[in-house]
Amino acid sequence: MRPIAAVKLFFVIAICTIYLISFSQIGALAYETFFKETDRLPAGTMVGPISVANKTKLEALQAIEKRVNEWKANATIPVAYQEKKGEIPASLFTFQIEQSERQMVAGRPSPLLVQFDVQAFSKTIKKLLPSSLASSINLEKLQNDVTNIAASLQIPSQPLDLAAYVSRSNETMQPVSAATLKLGKRPAPLLEWISANPTIEIKGKSIFSLAEYVKETSGSLSSEEMSMIASAVYQTILPTNFTVLERHTSRELPDGITIGYEAKVDGGNRDLQFYNPNTTAYTLKFRVEKNRLHVTLFGLPFAYKYVVKVGDIEYFKPRTVVQYSPLLRPGERQLKQSGKRGMLVKVKRETYDENHLVHVETIAEDFYPPSYNIELRGLELGDSNSDVNETPSSSEQSTEDEKQTDNESKNDEQPKEKQDENNGQSEEKQSEKETPSTTNDSSGQQKGHDHEKQG
């Protein structure tokens, strides 16, 4: 009996052992199947703009590295100062991928760590900014904004405006252009208006209208007074990157205004309008001293240097209109009206990057038609016909006057048709030396002497 009992006991112990081992193995497998726990990251886990939810740490590291490499392969951050443009290459950014992965928090967003080489970028800054502004830029703010763009893996659609990082001070807001105009009789309303409006702000990315501004400031200025202000302002903004949208001239050049710089405003159909393409505002300042109106433009220095050149003046000799009068004796002549020569001049603006000529554009072609000489003659006995080259009556003169095209037109209208019309009338064309050019130097003062009215 004892052997049989021992065998039974052995089988019981073996079965229990097999059961216990099998249960532990099967139970662990079942628990892993139905109550599985893994090292995958929960929902809401992000590194910068990259979602790593439901990924292992290794998979998260690989996903971050892939997105960063894609961004570096395609991305550049454009930067600009006025017309000058540059870019920040992706090679200046160092992404700390492993450190970003180690610092990520499960279920929460965490930053993508990146470093930006500001010192290398300073070379690009020096190429874009005027030398006077290189030390005035806020590099710390620029570094933070550029780093944030890279950390979010963005590609900006618009250039980063460097003017926004330049501190505003007396050193940076400099006189960038200036002009002077003789006032002549110094009309009281004009002086009162200048005293009440010593400065005018030209906002960035905006159109300025002188006629509207005078109207808004309740100015009761005559057309002549508004034209004096307009001409001084026009001469001031020419050596800048401002765009002239509307500008008119008279049929005859007013006294005290240099040819090429007239701007006629009458508060009605004629106005001076221009556009400030920069993101920053500029200020016009007026000052009257020794019977002269001084206008200065203050603001950030321009990226380029602008030089205005008034070309050679073409003169058109006036025709003589003959009128016969019964009050004069035969053969007697009398000058009733002395005519004036017509003038045509081209105004150009040259753009320089340091000493390198970048661009030349024609700003305007100003034409002032000639006025006739009117001569009275006595009737010849038995002679009813006039000379072929003479205009016999005032009625024919008025017909000729109608052929003269009104020169009070917008700045973009070309007077070539007027020139062709008067070529047959002119008996000579003269050219004078090119008048001194106007430029905006570092102090904002225009170089060259005032041009005096010629002829």
TrEMBL record:
Region Disordered: start-end pairs: 382-455
Entry's transmembrane regions: 9-31
Bias (Basic and acidic residues): 400-435
InterPro entries from the UniProt entry: G5_dom, Vancomycin_resist_VanW
This protein's record includes keyword Membrane: yes
Biased composition (Polar residues): 383-397, 436-446
Domain G5: 307-380
Keywords, sorted A to Z: Membrane, Signal, Transmembrane, Transmembrane helix
Official protein name in the record: G5 domain-containing protein
Organism: Geobacillus sp. (strain WCH70)
Lineage: Bacteria, Bacillati, Bacillota, Bacilli, Bacillales
